[in-house]
Amino acid sequence: MRLLVLGGTEFVGRAVVESALGRGWEVTVFHRGRHAPSPGARSLHGDRTAPDGLAALAGSEEWDAVVDTWSAAPRAVRETARLLRGRAGRYVYVSSCSVYAWAPAAGYTEDASLVEGAAADAEQTEYPRDKRGGELAAVEAFGADRSLLVRAGLILGPYENVGRLPWWLTRIARGGPVLAPGPRDLRLQYVDVRDLAQWVLGAVEQGLSGPYNLVSPQGHATMGELLDACVQVTGSDAEPVWTAPDVVLGAGIEPWTQLPVWVPQGSDMYDALHSADVSRAGAAGLECRPVTETVADTWAWLRDIGGVAPQRPDRTSKGLDPEVEAKVLAAVRGVSGTTS
């Protein structure tokens, strides 16, 4: 297989590149040159937001598939897909479950209602509409039979540049009492970035098309199992203090951002972020590794790069201020002091 990855040097794109190289595929990476691509991948440089930024992709070169992870203005996807539609067999657009109209009911499938107001030729607006616009652009250029829409949910694993699992690992590595949002058996839904990559490549080999919710089955891990794995791999003396959701919310703490991954059960957010129906992806070969492996490998990567994870400039920072955490812990446990 000859694969073109648009981006390909960070998180999802990098995982796709490494998985493809591991399969013996010939991989070309089109990127801005800010980060080195994986060894073995060929580089083409360009900036999709600049005039003539796609010049390096012009010509007669052909690929079996294109993987695109773009998250900004849909018109960039449209321009690239139009340029490549006669020279690539399939266009894989890594989208998001955020394209569903808020708030999707628990158990929503790929047939659920989608956000309104998205357009393939739009400038950047907001994440859900941008991702849906990217989907429309891919289908417009390649048709429904040659475009694959990967609607990913929460993505974790090595190379994460969003700040969720790295924040938890860094916080737990500091040790001491840790505010753990309950319940402990809260069922999570996420996908390891490497499992996403393997599924994408398998889907290309199978010639799949159309939309797929791509995330683990609900309950693949619990909040307790996730934090236990963090304690185990860091070897710290951290003590998760399981705290009722109403106490966490009553302290003004924001789910998902200040306490990454976690959202209160029974809320619209929980149904949207941890309750998708993934039977279609499962039937097409999705396999999910244990949470302990995801956590251990992310910690190993984090240590290899000096303990500070990269942060995408277009994503909000994640995590809870130590002083806020200390105040809530003091109220819960009747203790004083800080957790920093």
Description:
Helix content is 35%, strand content 17%. With 340 residues, the protein is α/β, with parallel strands linked by helices. Strands 3-2-1-4-5-6-11 form a seven-stranded parallel beta sheet, sandwiched between helices. Strand 5, helix 3 (127-142) and strand 6 (147-152) form a beta-alpha-beta unit. Helix 2 (74-84) packs parallel to helix 3 (127-142) and helix 4 (165-174) crosses helix 6 (223-234). Residues 335-340 have low confidence and may be disordered.
In short, what is this structure?
The chain has 340 residues and is of the alpha/beta class. Helices cover 35% and strands 17% of the residues.
List the helices and strands and how they pair.
Elements: E1 2-6, H1 11-22, E2 26-31, E3 42-45, E4 65-68, H2 74-84, E5 91-96, H3 127-142, E6 147-152, E7 155-156, H4 165-174, E8 177-181, E9 187-188, E10 191-192, H5 193-206, E11 210-214, E12 221-222, H6 223-234, E13 239-243, H7 245-250, E14 255-256, E15 259-260, H8 268-274, H9 279-283, H10 291-304, H11 322-333
Parallel strand pairs: 1-2, 1-4, 2-3, 4-5, 5-6, 6-11, 7-10, 8-13, 14-15
Antiparallel strand pairs: 9-12
Helix pairs in contact: 1-5, 2-3, 4-6, 6-10
